[in-house]
Predict the 3D structure of the following.
Amino acid sequence: MNAISNPLMDYASFVAAYTPTITFTAPCLLQDLGRAITVYDSTITGSPHIALLRQVMLVNGPGIEGINPNIAYICVWSDGGPDFETAIVARTG
């Protein structure tokens, strides 16, 4: 994903900025980096939220230690629409 600094984005802006680059294969350990993007639909009255994405970093695997390039946003909640596939995740600690 391109650098995105806005934590609230309309769907069109998110799609324009989003470039899928990483595929995580379960099971894997991801660290929540504390950043989130809430995507909303500006074409609907009230602009309801349609997805919540969290920035994560892959922390397990061969040769992975400390900061690495495997950083991405994953969808942790969506309104059930076809555009966002929700990851099944558990948060610990």
About this structure: Residues 29 and 46 are 36 Å apart (CA to CA).
